[in-house]
Amino acid sequence: MSDRLKGKVAIVTGGAAGIGEATAVLFAEEGAKVVIADVDEAAGMETVARIRAQGGEAIFVSTDISREGDARKACDEAVRAFGRLHILVNNAANFMLKGLEASIDDWHRSLGVNVIGTALISRYAAEAIKNAGGGAIVNLGSISSFIAQPSFVAYSATKAALVQMTRNMAMDLAPFNIRVNCVCPGTILTQAVHRHVERVGMTLEEFLTEERPKYLLSRIGEPREVAYAILFLASNEASFITGAHLMVDGGYTAR
């Protein structure tokens, strides 16, 4: 622990599991007070308990970011509980493996969470961060922001949108001392990957054997490896970085 976020207050959307959980725990280890905003209350409270057991401060706020009232509530609760807000991590996402056969409801859900929801909570968080004198927003893109993969039409479209949203948000919020950047991970070993492997009828080892050759580092990533990239961009160490995207993909897109 180096207290890189000492005195800071952060919201992590989708903070109950996977990259979001790893980020919330790491932020707390580095001194931040953390708001876990997620739809999964049971998992979210487990993450809160883990942080508190390690001596950190955290609360859970039940949040579906595609609902404007929930997006506003998460930001209001952060300020109510901890007095200020300095950091927003937009990690919540709808992961849908469908191509053009996706229904209109599928599209609405993907856009509602990945794009509109990100914009909604960023709007309310930005107001609170302005009041605190500035801070940082970190969006979560993907290698799918840049590459094509089978049955990824909606997911890739929304993740590509986040990269451009990051640039525009950075421009709009720079006058208020708010930096906005985007982390773009490759395949990361999360619960979502385990569910995908089960859904397609593969063993985890079969999946990993198929994935490893795609990466220059010959492996897929761990959630905490992405969390460290998010931590860097959220911290004062990245004080001259805004409007950027950082690939955390083991060299996948370098090929």
Task: Describe what this molecule looks like in 3D.
By secondary structure, the protein is α/β, with parallel strands linked by helices. It has 2 domains: 9-186 and 222-247, NAD(P)-binding Rossmann-like Domain (Rossmann fold, 3-Layer(aba) Sandwich); 189-220, no CATH class. Helices cover 46% and strands 15% of the residues. It contains 8 helices and 7 strands; from the N terminus they run βαβαβαβαβαβαααβ. The protein has helices at 18-29, 41-53, 68-82, 104-131, 153-173, 191-199, 204-211, 223-234, and strands at residues 9-13, 33-38, 57-62, 87-90, 135-140, 178-185, 245-248. A 7-stranded parallel beta sheet has the order 3-2-1-4-5-6-7, with helices on both faces. Helix 1 links the parallel strand 1 and strand 2. The protein is globular.
Brief sketch in words of this structure:
This protein is of the alpha/beta class and 255 residues long.
The class by helix and strand makeup works out as: alpha/beta
Helix and strand sequence: EHEHEHEHEHEHHHE
Mean pLDDT: 96
CATH class of the largest domain: Alpha Beta
Strand content: 15-25%
